[in-house]
Structure formats: structure tokens, C-alpha cells
Design a protein that fits this description.
Elements: H1 4-16, E1 30-32, E2 47-49, H2 53-60
Antiparallel strand pairs: 1-2
Amino acid sequence: MKNAKSDYVTDYWEQFYATEHCTLCGNHGVIDTRGVKTPAGYEAGRLNWCICPNGQALRAKAQHLPTDAPR
């Protein structure tokens, strides 16, 4: 059973980012912004779980992943 938080996130994703594929991650479940910098030149990117159902499922199983996995 889903919790209310993931239902809200999924509803938000469906409203703004769902087409035939997730427009945020392309159905990979991970968004990789490593190498992205702020206008001032500070590193701002990292690996992030997507808010799509794939990303939510991967996040739920992330406890056994190495420390360099998305947070």
C-alpha cells in the first residue's frame, strides 16, 4: 500500500511530467545533474532519485546501495 506522500508526489508527477515516458528522467528513475554549476561557478549537481514511480521505487530500495548512490 502506498503512503499518502508518494500518492501526492505521483499525482504531481502525472499532472506535470508524465507523457508516454517520464519527461524528467526518461523512465530511468534517476536524474543525473553532476557537472551542473550555479552562475557563480559552484558545483550544484548530483544524482537524484526522480519523483516518477520508477524513482520512488528505487528510493525505497536504496538502503542497500553504496554511498555514492543518489539520496
